[in-house]
Amino acid sequence: MRKIVGLLLLVSLATAVNAVQKFEGNPDEIIAVKASTTDPNIISITGGSIESVWGTEDKVALEANVETGQAIFRPATLTPFTLFVQTLAGNTYTLAVTPQQKLIGQSIVINEFGTIDQSGVERNLGIVAYKNVVKRLLRTVEQMQGVQKLRGFSLVSVNKEKPLWVETQIVHVNSWRRSDLIIDRYLITNITDKKLVMEEREFISLERMIRAISIRKHTLAPAESSVMYTVRERS
Fold this sequence. Notes:
There is one protein chain. The chain is about 10% helix and about 45% strand. By secondary structure, the protein is mainly beta. The protein folds into two domains: about 5-110, Immunoglobulin-like (Sandwich); about 125-235, Immunoglobulin-like (Sandwich), CATH 2.60.40. The chain has a five-stranded mixed sheet, with no helix packed on it. It has a five-stranded mixed sheet with strand order 2-10-4-7-6, with no helix packed on it. A five-stranded antiparallel sheet has the order 11-12-13-17-15, covered by helices on one side. It starts with a strand and ends with a strand. Residues about 1-15 and about 115-125 have low confidence and may be disordered.
């Protein structure tokens, strides 16, 4: 039976101490890992989050944490089995799991873009991968009904006015934050008595390290508002 787990609410807690196994993420290679049969084992993605995890057989108990983008599993057998991990960036990794008794819980860390020691999100991901991640994140928040939690991110209420032009009122409503990226949501209102036409590039100075901007409506009548999202690196 094929077993699929999305990012559900974590209902069992991992132990405080876990042995760490680090791997460079390569979707074309099989990642061999050890796992405890007695303690929870954690799978996490450096600089990203997990979209889903599944196994081909009922040999494992799977859960996930919507707040951290991690997956939790515990083997139900001593027989080796395979797990598939799909990330928010769209990569799928194959884990060959060897269950072991008398082993503490394992923290399995996959460095998705293979550059742990480099700084800067855009360098870490590479141009193409970075753009794909940003597009996917923006599409996700734009499709939300109102303000909701985003897996792998913490949701922070801001409600602070940002002065930029005399023609507009710009309110920073909230942010979704994780260790490397921040997605900001703004409400822009035309406070003039004339039609206002906006372009994304005109808002690049709102914050440092902005890497992408998306405006829901580019032309505003007097007193009309529009939602805008920005994605920026976390310094």
